[in-house]
Amino acid sequence: MTSALATGRGIARRMHEHPLDRAKSRDYRAMQFNFVVSTNERAVRLWQSLGFDVVGCLPRAFNHPEHGYVDALVMFRTL
Fold first, then answer.
1. DSSP E strands: which ranges in 1-79?
2. What is the pTM of this model?
3. pLDDT attached to residue 55
4. Distance of CA 24 to the CA centre of its chain
């Protein structure tokens, strides 16, 4: 997560690219995130722009303070 003040400055992208680069340098073959809240559209778009695909859905797994129970996504990509 980043501060709302950091929105649009590329900080979240750099924070997400760093572990991908580290994993590649250590010969990991893939990376998976098990709980991306579906209503966090910016995060979902960011992960997708970094090559991640939605490979699973946990129906109504997260109790969002505004939207009630929403899905959590499992996102995966090879390295």
1. 30-37, 53-64, 68-78
2. 0.85
3. 98
4. 17
